[in-house]
Amino acid sequence: MNRSVTINKMSEQMGLTSRTLRHWESEGLFRSERDPSSGWRVYDENAILSIRIIALLRKFDIPLKEIKTVIANINALKLYTVINNRILALEAQKEEIIRYQNRLERILKYLRLQDSNSCMDKILAEMEAVYMDNRIENKMYKIVNLPPMRVAYHISVSTSPEDEAMTPVMEWILSSNLEGTARFFGGNVKPFPGRIGAPYGYGMCTTIPESIHVPKHLKEMVLPGGLYAMMESSDDVGESWKILMKGLTEDDKYHSDRSRLCLEEHIRNESSASSGGMLYHLNLLEPVKLK
Fold first, then answer.
1. CA-based, 20 to 30 A from 8: which of 67, 127, 214, 224?
2. Distances (CA, A) of 245 to 67, 143, 256, 267
3. Where does the HTH merR-type domain start and stop, copy by copy (predicted)?
4. What CATH topology corresponds to 143-290?
5. What is the pLDDT at residue 201?
6. CB 257 within 8 A of CB 225
């Protein structure tokens, strides 16, 4: 490709419509300039690289929202993360298809035992029972595989340490313009929560690119990643943890891995500014391993 390429040439070379290119640009994925002589949109080398990445990842049905995190910080680790997320989404879809197939096969098995004069009300009642019976098939949590992640963190110990641990991390991320690509994780550390009113520890960390220097008031480590049981928390975080842990005690395939810390991922609520709701909701992550 030339050092700069017009929109019509880019469309031809990449097999993309000019409408698609304009849409991706409107989403903030790259920027074009205008050729003063022709008025055509022109893409420089950075834009061309971004377009190549977007076009390839979209062929694998990776959402633009996740592609945007790759464009903001182009490296192998970020590519690994979004591709791994896509694999997990496909696995979840596959599990859902298998569940529906199992339900339909149960109905077929029941129908084989019926004759042409069987009561239709009875047959429909059985089908409704099969559809509604998800006590075993559907779990409150799913198993995810997190990659190793470089993080900056801060730990606080008090009777209410969560906000104290979170504030310096969040302030640094905002001041460094890293919020769009960062993931935020928290979790209890020693001394662990005990009796009501006693101080306990809480750590807050954020993922950071390899090229970013961590300031002195924060510390750095690598979260090991691996398998986790993940469940979205209700407003009652403690009760949600109890539900997750109870589910794992009954799981026939996985159990808790005490060699790694449990985590709470803070997911930003994009509608919070307009709705007045919570800024973040939590995904609970309990480390697990195969039995």
1. 67
2. 33, 13, 8, 21
3. 6-73
4. Multidrug-efflux Transporter 1 Regulator Bmrr; Chain A (3.20.80)
5. 93
6. no
In whole angstroms, give the CA distance from residue 164 to residue 161: 5
Write the pLDDT tens digit of every residue in 138-183.
Answer: 567 889 988 899 999 999 999 889 889 999 999 999 898 887 778 9
Q: Are 32 and 47 in contact (CB under 8 A)?
A: yes
The C-alpha atoms of residue 58 and residue 287 are separated, in whole angstroms, by 31
Please give the full DSSP string across 208-229, using - where no structure is assigned.
Answer: --TTPPPPTTSEEEEE--EEEE
The average pLDDT across 236-251 equals: 87
Q: What is the largest CA-CA distance in the chain?
A: 80
pTM for the model stands at 0.53
Segments making up each domain of the chain, as ranges: 5-72, 77-138, 143-290
